[in-house]
């Protein structure tokens, strides 16, 4: 084999090594994204479990706020039934809005604010809301890393031949941004 | 120095997060700049250690203490070998320190581990930041001390721990606590314990070698070269003259190198603090909490008895000294709090 042959062989080996590295990079990014999604899922379930408890604890004291409580439960049930990132985004946004309104109304009930059980539930819900938004943030970062790898040249050649598809961002509906922050202390 | 590049517009993929304004923040650019500066400092530190080893080897070779013969000009096989030997010792020592360091730190600061039932809010906030960082949940410790401080340790994401003082828990609200924990989680995500362990070992080794050099020099030059070498070979008088010049250079280097290495260590430590601040903003998307926490920590400045020189760089604010502008001096592990706040404000555009 002549000099030219070796050069061609070297280039081919380099291209194959690059292709392996690019493929593995996409696999690990896809796994990270899926893992991040399951992390969101865990926190969403936690919120779905916490909300009925909170409603149960406050419903006697807040007898005049039946409408709000009903809205919270309905939003929660819709969120539980939601499927996939796009649908979940909308339902969870509505749920955040409903619980935000409930927290705001609870400010008017000093007995509730002094209740240890309520305070504990409120801290749990606040933490869970935060965890959801941080998990969403990490999920979106992971989606972007995967999409960048898939869509930019020459990675798109690998992605195309092995059937990698771009990830779906978890977007927050506009309404959630209007929700006032709940401050515990 | 602030990064001179204009801040990039906030990318759309960030998505709105938990009612937090970020504005035209670019914490990723801040992090890249910090990492670049750390790298430069690590190269400088390596050069100091290698240069000292090379000089030592060269001198020993010229002085006839090594079996190898001096080569032509400034190239010395003995010098290269000595520098490599120092490198090898540094790697071995670092590996041992990394394997044992974490446990020692926890024992030295005297905290006790807490579970969710003991400190629900603290554990929740740590969990939030672990999620934001994509890290495993670290162990959480509370130090029963009125001083306001926090630290992070751990050499892998598996053995990480975050500790806070009781004073900090009592004095900060949830948002501020989140900023502090975000900073500590930043140290864990950026592998700062690993960085500072390796840097500390190298600095210690430079000090050790310098100390050895100065001790050996007390015996005076040419102890072995004065031994009769029978005038054979090329060593002879030329080697002795070179040895004398090298000896002077070596003594100067032995005095200067530990100091220079120490300055680099402090500079690395300060860069990692800025980096952890920028990383905290990446996690929380909220510079205000950390700014407010730093202000409270500075106002409450009281030394924390559980800290020592060996662990001071781990804390969010220096536990041993006042954190005013004097702290911006070269011999500080932490930047002045005003400087940190100014950079955070630039990040948050608040």
Automatic annotation (TrEMBL), chain B:
Question: Which GO molecular function annotations are given, in alphabetical order?
Answer: metalloendopeptidase activity; zinc ion binding
All residue ranges annotated as the Peptidase M48 domain in the record: 118-346
- Residues the record marks as active site: 184
The entry's Zn(2+)-binding residues are: 183, 187, 273
User: Does this entry carry the keyword Hydrolase?
Assistant: yes
Per the record, the major location class is membrane
Q: Tell me the cofactors it needs.
A: Zn(2+)
Q: Which Gene3D superfamilies match?
A: Metalloproteases ('zincins'), catalytic domain (3.30.2010.10)
Residues passing through the membrane, by range: 39-60, 80-100, 195-217, 237-261
Cofactor remark: Binds 1 zinc ion per subunit.
Ordered alphabetically, the record's keywords are: Cell membrane, Hydrolase, Membrane, Metal-binding, Metalloprotease, Protease, Transmembrane, Transmembrane helix, Zinc
What Pfam families does the record point to? Answer: Peptidase_M48
UniProt superkingdom: Bacteria
Q: Which GO terms describe its biological process?
A: proteolysis
Which GO CC terms are listed, alphabetically? plasma membrane
**Where located?**
Cell membrane
Q: What is its EC number?
A: 3.4.24.-
Q: Which InterPro entries match?
A: HtpX_protease (IPR050083), Pept_M48_protease_HtpX (IPR022919), Peptidase_M48 (IPR001915)
Topology with respect to the bilayer:
Multi-pass membrane protein
The record's similarity note reads: Belongs to the peptidase M48B family.
Q: What is this protein called?
A: Protease HtpX homolog
Originating organism: Vineibacter terrae
């Amino acid at each position: 084999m002549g000099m030219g042959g070796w050069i061609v062989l070297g280039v081919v080996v380099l291209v194959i090594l690059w292709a392996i590295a690019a493929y593995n990079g996409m696999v690990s990014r896809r796994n990270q994204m899926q893992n991040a999604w399951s992390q969101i899922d865990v926190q969403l379930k936690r919120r779905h479990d916490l909300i009925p408890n909170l409603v149960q604890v406050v419903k006697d004291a807040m007898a005049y706020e039946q409408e709000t409580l009903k809205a919270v439960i309905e939003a929660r049930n819709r969120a539980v039934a939601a499927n996939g990132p796009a649908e979940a985004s909308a339902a969870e946004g509505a749920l955040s809005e409903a619980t935000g309104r409930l927290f705001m109304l609870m400010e008017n009930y000093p007995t509730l604010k002094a209740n240890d059980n309520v305070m504990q539930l409120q801290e749990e819900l606040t933490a869970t809301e935060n965890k959801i938004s941080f998990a969403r943030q990490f999920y979106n970062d992971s989606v972007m890393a995967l999409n960048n790898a898939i869509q930019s040249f020459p990675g798109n050649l690998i992605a195309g031949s092995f059937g990698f598809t771009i990830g779906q961002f978890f977007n927050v509906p506009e309404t959630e941004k209007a929700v006032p922050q709940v401050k515990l202390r | 120095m602030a990064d001179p590049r204009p801040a990039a517009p906030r990318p759309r993929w960030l998505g709105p997060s938990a009612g937090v304004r970020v504005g035209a923040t670019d914490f990723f650019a801040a992090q890249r700049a910090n990492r670049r500066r750390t790298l430069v400092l690590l190269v400088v530190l390596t050069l100091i250690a290698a240069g000292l080893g090379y000089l030592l080897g060269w001198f020993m070779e010229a002085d006839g203490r090594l079996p190898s013969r001096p080569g032509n000009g400034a190239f010395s096989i003995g010098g290269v070998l000595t520098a490599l030997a120092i490198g090898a010792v540094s790697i071995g020592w670092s590996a041992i320190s990394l394997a044992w360091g974490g446990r020692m730190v926890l024992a030295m600061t005297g905290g006790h581990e807490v579970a969710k039932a003991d400190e629900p809010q603290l554990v929740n906030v740590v969990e939030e930041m672990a999620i934001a960082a994509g890290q495993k949940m670290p162990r959480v410790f509370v130090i029963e001390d009125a001083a306001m401080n926090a630290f992070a340790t751990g050499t892998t994401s598996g053995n990480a721990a975050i500790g806070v003082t009781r004073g900090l828990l009592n004095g900060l609200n949830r948002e501020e606590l989140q900023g502090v924990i975000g900073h500590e989680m930043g140290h864990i995500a950026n592998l700062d314990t690993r960085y500072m362990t390796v840097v500390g070992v190298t600095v210690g080794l430079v000090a050790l070698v310098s100390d050895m050099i100065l001790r050996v020099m007390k015996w005076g030059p040419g102890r072995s070269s004065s031994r009769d070498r029978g005038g054979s070979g090329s060593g002879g008088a030329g080697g002795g003259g070179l040895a004398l010049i090298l000896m002077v250079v070596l003594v100067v280097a032995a005095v200067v190198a530990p100091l220079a290495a120490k300055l680099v260590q402090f500079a690395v430590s300060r860069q990692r603090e800025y980096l952890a601040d920028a990383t905290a903003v990446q996690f929380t998307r909220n510079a205000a909490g950390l700014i407010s926490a730093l202000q409270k920590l500075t106002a409450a400045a009281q030394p924390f008895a559980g800290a020592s020189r060996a662990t001071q760089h781990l804390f969010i604010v220096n536990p041993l000294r006042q954190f005013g502008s004097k702290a911006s001096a070269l011999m500080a592990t932490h930047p002045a709090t005003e400087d940190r706040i100014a950079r955070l404000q630039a990040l948050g555009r608040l």
